Amino acid sequence: MKMRIHKLLAERFARKLAWRASPVPVISFTFDDFPRSALTIGGRMLSDYGWRGTYYGAMGLMGTTVGAEPMFTRTDVDELLTAGHELACHTLNHTSCYAVGNTNFVHGCEENRREAAMALGGYQLENLSFPHGHITLAAKRHLQAAYHTCRSIEMGINSDPADFGFLRANAIYSRLPIETLKDLIHANTQANGWLIFYTHDVAIDPSQFGCTPDYFAEILRAAHESGAEVLTIREATTRYNLCHSAASRAEEHRQECPRS
What's the mean pLDDT in 118-142? Predict the structure, then answer.
């Protein structure tokens, strides 16, 4: 119940509203935690279409193994950036904002940005995904000013106005019915929205939070056939105009700004 209350408060308040500036629907493929297979298999499959993905990495996990999954290495990060993918923030040590106080959680995000910048010649982590999908209103208020977007794991399509502080995203897990994801792609085309997918590993024998290459390939084919632009999170934000009105800054009034 407490987790549900946190989510509802974060979803409804302190919204960072943005309106589409492009008439073409958008799809983004993202990877959380950044297991190596997300790049060595998933990233190469994206590249076969000429597409790029967004990888939410925790620099404190670099070179480690979580469960049975080898996490990304420094060489992987270099290859990721060379291929044009986006590296984004997932806190320093994959910390839930329910497990620590807000000050410590925000500090962990700052540390991750600092570690990435030091290791990668000043590279900036411009977007955030909340580990485990855990999000509080306090964390959202603090961090949406530090990042272009903050991503949740709340299902759905980001339709106008999109909340850049609480982007919706949908799991690509082999244990889930694939037709549900295909239906989302179709609905996104009809809504002219922004559909974000996320997974973890892409492997022949994936974890419960990953998918097989065949499953991933079927989703990629459906995305291609939809005619949507497939963009990284960073690229997709350029297809939007942020609302800077007083109504947007004072979300408690529940007013929305007009289209640009």
Answer: 96
CA distance between the termini of the chain:
39
Mean pLDDT of the chain: 93
Rounded to whole angstroms, the Cα distance separating 47 from 211 reads 18
- The answer to whether residue 252 sits within a structural domain is no
Residue 2: per-residue pLDDT: 67
Say if residues 27 and 226 touch (Cβ distance below 8 Å): yes
Task: Report cis status (omega within 30 of 0) of the bond before 131.
Answer: no
DSSP-assigned beta bridge partners for residue 202: 211
DSSP E strand boundaries for the chain: 17-20, 26-33, 54-57, 65-66, 69-70, 86-89, 127-129, 149-151, 162-163, 170-171, 194-199, 229-230, 240-242
Task: Give the rounded percent of residues in the chain with a pLDDT score beyond 70.
Answer: 93
Q: Where are the alpha helices (DSSP H) in 23-101?
A: 36-37, 44-48, 74-82
Look at residue 251 and tell me if it is in a domain.
no
Q: What is the mean pLDDT of residues 40-69?
A: 96
Domain that holds residue 149: 2-244
Mean pLDDT of 174-198: 97
Instruction: Assign residue 170 the CATH number of its domain.
Output: 3.20.20.370
How large a percentage of the chain has pLDDT more than 90? 87
Query: How many other C-beta atoms lie within 10 A of the C-beta of residue 208?
Result: 9
Domain count for the chain: 1
Stated pTM of the model: 0.93
165 in a structural domain: yes
